[in-house]
Amino acid sequence: MNDTFMKERPVFPLILSMAMPMVISMLVNSLYNIVDSFFVAQISEDAMTALSLVFPVQNFSNAIAIGFGIGISSQIAICLGAGNKETASKAATHGLALSALHGILLTVICISIMPKFLSDKNVSILGVRYSTIVFLFAIVTTINLAYEKIFQGVGNMKVTMIGLMVGCVSNILLDPLMIFGLGPFPAMGIEGAALATGLGQVLNLVFYLIVYKMRPIQVQISRRYLHPDKSLASRLYSVGIPGALNLALPSVLVSALNGLLAAYSQSYVVILGIYYKLQTFLYLPASGIVQGMRPVIGYNYGAGEHKRVKKIYFVTL
Known about the structure:
Layout: H1 5-8, H2 11-41, H3 45-81, H4 85-117, H5 121-136, H6 138-153, H7 157-180, H8 190-214, H9 230-262, H10 266-278, H11 280-302, H12 306-316
């Protein structure tokens, strides 16, 4: 791949080529959310209620990982635009290491707090069983999302599209096998849904690792870049924290609404959960366009192409 294509290609086709793979992958991700709920609903209403209550916490956890990943991809794009591949490699390496640390913290915190989100006894049992397995994979998810943003930072959107689709499609295929015990798989119920989600993330990460080894990109992930760098960490978090908050606040709102609705009926919680997943069809494609735009703006900003940055912004709007 030409290292300077984000600075040289005409703006409109460039944005289109960067955004479309992400829009497609976001639509597949939306489909996964709905299909996953469909299979869990076959278990029982309590299982669906448990999933609806756990989902905002899952989203909150993912928002932290994605938000920090935005910080990683932004720094990589800016450094590559400025022609500083070594600092871009440092940003990727530090970002990956910090993402792994975030995954460990999220595992401990989320598993600890989940019982407090689940009041009804039956729902609480199902919710804890589901969430414990899901959050045991949190470190895989955070590293997975870090790799996703690293590939986005260098402008390789097709790899992230395929990676996301590998995770989503494998999850969709594993759901009925593990929930209902089809073929060689035992019937695991709600634990099967959680395990399918975790294994989907594992397969996604394996795909990224294979691509990284087989098709080297502009940045290197290496131990030699791991020495402490407060300035770099500050830059990563200065973008990552606002990004995480922007993504996490809707999950906080849904958790608050779940708490209010649970006092009246579990059915209300289920309905809100279904609606929240359905509405992703509206905002995730827009998110795909933004993800396609972000590395292009970062690269051109780093290259000092400020007029082109403005043009990219207005073309995207």
